[in-house]
Amino acid sequence: MDWEAFSTLHDGLDREGPGCADDVRWAVGMAGTHGEARVLDAGCGPGADTETLAHELPEAWIDAVDLHAPFAAATAARCSRFGPRVKAWQGDMAKVAGPYDLIWCAGAMYFLGVTEGLGAFRGMLTRAGRVAFSEPVLLSDKEPPEVHAFWSDYPQITDRAGVEDRIAAAGYRTLGTRLVIGAPWEAYYAPLERRIADLRSAGPSSALDAALKREEAEIAAWRAAPDRIAYLLSVVEPA
Q1: Distances in whole angstroms, Cα of residue 140 to Cα of each of 38, 143, 158, 161
Q2: Phi, psi at residue 158, to the nearest 5°?
Q3: What does the pLDDT look like over 100-110, one tens digit per residue?
Q4: Amino acid 11: pLDDT
Q5: DSSP bridge pairs for 84
Q6: Dmax of the chain from CA atoms?
Q7: Phi and psi for 93 in degrees, rounded to 5?
Q8: What is the pLDDT of residues 167-200, one digit of tens each?
Q9: How far apart, in Å, do the first and last CA atoms of the chain sit?
Q10: 191: buried, middle or exposed (CB in 10 Å: 19+, 13-18, 0-12)?
Q11: Which long-range contacts (CB under 8 A, 24 or more apart) does 121-128 make?
């Protein structure tokens, strides 16, 4: 990956994946997180969900970590008004000390694998700690070709039962699930489309042009089946 082209395209966007504030609120409620909880936003991107966590949990202490340093910096700036109870830094989300009452991981668990990621998070949880994460999911075993084309770079994708199997293999049980579909994806792709249009009008370099074409192809693939492409948001706890 050309990181300069990636940064030019992505840095400054509101979020780095599908989602919305309602997803965060639902997960916080399902997890029962409250009061002076310790929370980790694992793979925080530019901090959209970190900000929502800070609003929803006004007494919580929130850490946010992302491997891409500009995202961590953007999160720190975005959440500076919350003072010292929100901290963000560049780092490996699987190697944070904790312990945490809630680990929120939106659209980033696939970097580790569900079973492997939950295994890494187990040692970062308090005794009553819970994990909320989203994972690509097939809605049925007979999805149209457009859906399989969209997920062609993620051969590990499975259905709900497959996600549940991976959760159980990590020694967790599921408290609740929610589909991330439709509008939360538009909330990510629409600003990205506007950024692509702006960059094209400025005459992109060959490396940036290649990055723009990749993103355009992804957006077009999503628009071919927006009601069938989904994440499964799960709230889980060690069994």
Answers
A1: 36, 6, 9, 10
A2: -145, -175
A3: 999 999 999 99
A4: 87
A5: none
A6: 54
A7: -65, -20
A8: 999 999 999 999 999 999 999 999 999 999 999 9
A9: 39
A10: middle
A11: 121/42, 121/94, 122/170, 122/171, 122/238, 123/98, 124/40, 124/96, 124/97, 124/98, 124/99, 124/100, 125/98, 125/99, 125/100, 125/101, 125/238, 126/38, 126/98, 126/99, 126/100, 126/101, 128/101, 128/237
The residue behind tokens 């000390």 is 97
Task: Locate 49 and state its tokens.
Answer: 């969900």
Whether 33 and 60 have beta carbons less than 8 Å apart is answered as yes
Predicted confidence at residue 1, as pLDDT, reads 65
How confident is the model over 34-55, as pLDDT tens digits? 999 999 999 999 999 999 999 9
Mapped onto helix, strand or coil, the DSSP state of residue 186 is helix
Fold of 15-143+154-183+228-238: Rossmann fold (3.40.50)
Say how far apart CA 36 and CA 33 lie, in whole Å: 9
Tell me, rounded to whole angstroms, the distance of Cα 172 from its chain centroid. 20
Q: What is the dihedral of CA 79, 23, 106, 239, to 10 degrees?
A: 120
pLDDT digits (tens, 9 = 90+) for 115-155: 999 999 999 999 999 999 999 999 999 999 999 999 999 99
